[in-house]
Amino acid sequence: MSPRYDVAIIGGGHNGLVAAFHLARAGLKTVVCERREIVGGCCVTEEFAPGYRASTGAYVLSMLRESLWGEMRLRERGIEVDPAGPSLHLFADGTRLELPEETPGAQRAIAELSQADAEAFPAFEEDLARLAGLVTPLIETTPPDPHPRRPGDFGALLKLGGMAAGKRDLINEALFLFSTSATQFLDERFESEYVKAAIGWHAINDSISGPSTPGTAYILLHDHAAEDPDGGARAWGFVKGGMGRLTEAMADAAREAGAEIRTGAAVREILVQDGRAAGLELADGSVIRAGRVVSNADPKTTFLGLVDEGELPPGFVASVRAYRCQGTSMKINLAVDRLPMATGLQGDPAGGEVQPYHRGIMEVNQPLAEMDAAQAEARAGRPAEDPHVEMCIPTVHDPSLAPSGHHVLTIDVNSQPYELAEGSWDGIRDEVADRAIAKLEGYFPGLTGSIVHRQVLSPLDLERLLGIAGGHALHGDMGFDQLFTLRPVRGYSDYRTPVEGLYLCGAGTHPGGGVTGANGINCAREVVRDRRPGPIGRLVNR
């Protein structure tokens, strides 16, 4: 019996939708099976209390590939991005650092803490930009296998060699960045612990590692490498209507290209016949026959949950089990009846007027050494007592997300491990959330009294709701040993898997997490190439 579909895609997250769009546009009969009743995966916007909507997973847009704006006609479909304001960093000793996006403004703010750091900041930004120039061309490139398994791998290796030609000094700096810690990288450039913390806190985001762990410096480069090279709102901002509006638009584009999208279609098993993917069995027992299967699920969910282990090489299974994919963030969405006002800054605390920092990300921050201590608690299975906390206010950018005069606060609490040494997340969830809100109260007096409703999502809840193993939003740590040719595991970085006709397109593939769409673009390209007859076609089009 011939398959009903050319390609069946597991999961309607943004990468799955991007892959569906490209595959359908290439003429392949494509179906997307999404387990929830809404598309979006980790890019969804949902009502968490009557009249209040929040982006449950990703809540800011900063890295979506420029090509997708045109190809999927996202602007024409009504997608607007409101530029983010400055980031505000609040420290326990009363120090405040408000960092605008533009370098001159950031310099002026840093100079209030350290003139030397202010003078060093432009060179730091320029160095990251130069390194990003080396990495950016790789984002929409399929990582080559150092041990070529197919003719196309030789072409990819030659392409990579050509890109590196004449850039020996830059490559040396990049290797240092990839292998060193965020702490060491910043210690070489800045003196102020506040400045280093304001820049370096990203190193612990969605990771169990501390900023002094080798390999964490790369995270400083990640946003630079993946953003719109021309800057602007598309590089960094809030989607009007929430992140779910973006994936709704992507789903519309995929349908127009010819893809079928099914919601409420949870996948129970990837069917394999004679070593080749043959389709999907859904939770309701129905079967979808397809010549190829693309999984937008994370590697652990795909290979340890949907594929019979007997169909996979034992060494591959061992590598997937060892793949680091433990989330460390608690998400809290608050419905409040007034804006929170930070202490120690200009503005009338009782006035409720929007301040510049309300438009950006607010960080209750700490020195890097204290972040190390908090992450050590998490590695020991204990929710950190004094974690880094991040907050943003999407309703400042789009008031329609809440009733008139009210707001939504989205809070991310770091150093909260998925795996607990004692107890359960269902048992301690509210206690940990209360502690985080009490901490914010010390910087935003009156916050607790303004809360009308709240939603608390532990790493376990994020796993349950969004279907991501370990509650890890990036489908796995972004350490150097889990990037490029090593993501998700050695020998399988080209979106293909040990099962012929089974591919990965999610954040557990190159270039990793973030709302880039590059994973879906790259995977779809490889699926199309594999349908072209003969090795010469794959080599030429690599």
What does this structure look like?
The chain is α/β, with parallel strands linked by helices and 542 residues long. The protein has a domain at 5-44 and 57-80 and 237-323 and 470-540: FAD/NAD(P)-binding domain. The chain is built from 19 helices and 18 strands. It has helices at residues 14-25, 66-71, 103-111, 115-135, 151-164, 168-179, 182-187, 193-200, 218-226, 243-257, 299-306, 314-322, 368-379, 394-397, 425-441, 447-450, 459-466, 518-531, 535-540; strands at 5-10, 30-33, 45-49, 52-55, 81-83, 87-90, 96-99, 237-239, 260-262, 267-273, 276-282, 287-295, 330-336, 362-364, 389-392, 407-413, 451-457, 502-504. β11 and β12 form a beta hairpin. The chain is globular. The two termini are 32 Å apart.
Short summary of the structure?
The protein contains 19 helices and 18 strands. By secondary structure, it is an alpha/beta fold.
Write down the Rg: 23 Å
Proportion of strand residues: 15-25%
Mean pLDDT: 90
Helical content stands at 25-40%
Oligomer state of the chains in this structure: single chain
CATH class category of the domain at 5-44 and 57-80 and 237-323 and 470-540: Alpha Beta
Largest sheet: 7 strands, mixed
CATH topology of the domain at 5-44 and 57-80 and 237-323 and 470-540: FAD/NAD(P)-binding domain
Distance N to C terminus: 32 Å
Keywords:
542 residues, alpha/beta, FAD/NAD(P)-binding domain, 36% helix, disordered C terminus
